[in-house]
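Researcher: Checking consistency across runs. Here is HEAT repeat domain-containing protein again:
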Amino acid sequence: MVTTPTPEEIHRLLYTDEQGNEVGLDEVQLLDPPPEERIPLVREILRNPDEYRVYQAALVLAAWGDDVGLEKLEEFIDTRLHERGEFSPNRIDGEDNVYDEIAYAVHLHGLSGKRTDARERIFRKLLGLYGPCFFESKLKHALLKSDLASLAPDVHAAIERALALGHPYLASQLLPVLARWEPSLAQRLIQTFSGRSSLIPDPMVNVAEALGYIDTPESRSVLTRLSRHADEEISEQARRSLEMLSRRKR
């Protein structure tokens, strides 16, 4: 019988590696192979009255490929966890990044090769929250690393929703995902982001990334121009995208 972990045990389970070194929640999610002997104990944390600890335990379990953790994360999405408190404040502006962290754990769960149907369903639900809720970039990167092109309409809707709510940079983050799956649609949307260069952060860095998935003379021309942009982040991304297009030609 598994006993309820003490506060000290919870700290060890969620924040330390197998040598007992304190590495933090993010690194514990990446332990490879996952420490199987910890899983029953971390599952017990899901019974904890502190919802913040439950959230962290679910992230760890899902990242380790555990379906119980994945199901708990989906429950948090369905019950709108963000309305019950602040669980993962962004390090720069304090926006709650709770669903972006969930997206990352779901991505890591996918590396186990299990529950592709659940992963797609959860990503679709997260995209439904995109715009009203904040996402730093982990959902974007999770989708870019997936083969879930059936989500393209949901990505498109998320971009339009974020734009309508006055969040152009947030909207632009998903342009590379849409460009990978629906390049012609993404190219039409890109026009929406021209003339917004006064914004910080600048959506053009995501435009430059998206153009790397759109192999047309027009894209190459825009990328060549952006490669000389005064903003180093934009110019560097444009050069990376040009290199990506060149590799495809080889």
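Researcher: Does this match what you'd expect to see?
Model: One thing to look at in this run: The radius of gyration is 20 Å.
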